Amino acid sequence: MEILLEGTGLRVKGSCLIQELQPLQKSLLELINSDRSSIQLDLSGVEAIDTAGIQLLAVCRKSALEKGKTFRITSESEAVREALKITGLESMLENSKKA
After folding, report:
1. What is the CATH classification number for the domain harbouring 66?
2. pLDDT digit string (tens) for 12-25?
């Protein structure tokens, strides 16, 4: 997995599978605990994501919103879109785009 910090947030490329999530979790927690008011994720380069990856996104979104921050997925790959649909979390993360 490749994680790039950009001015607007994170761009993630590769696989978001349980055995590879620790760097993404660390990066997301750093953003949530930073002075940023908005967290934006570009997931268009994600080739595979499992339920652990989706769960991490949901937990981080909740943490960000509890701290008064916006959490947006600005772009997602077909793999991410399909995983969100299968897990029933598609609408929850889509709603964060409107925040």
Report:
1. 3.30.750.24
2. 999 999 999 999 99
Q: Which amino acid is at 74?
A: T
pTM: 0.86
Smallest CA-to-CA distance from 59 within 80, 78, 32 is with 32
Report how many domains make up the chain. 1
Q: Which domain holds residue 45?
A: 2-98
Yes or no: say if 56 and 28 are a contact pair by the CB < 8 Å rule: yes
What number of residues does the chain have?
Answer: 99
For residue 35, what are its two tokens? 């002075």
Strand 9-16 with 2-6, pairing: antiparallel
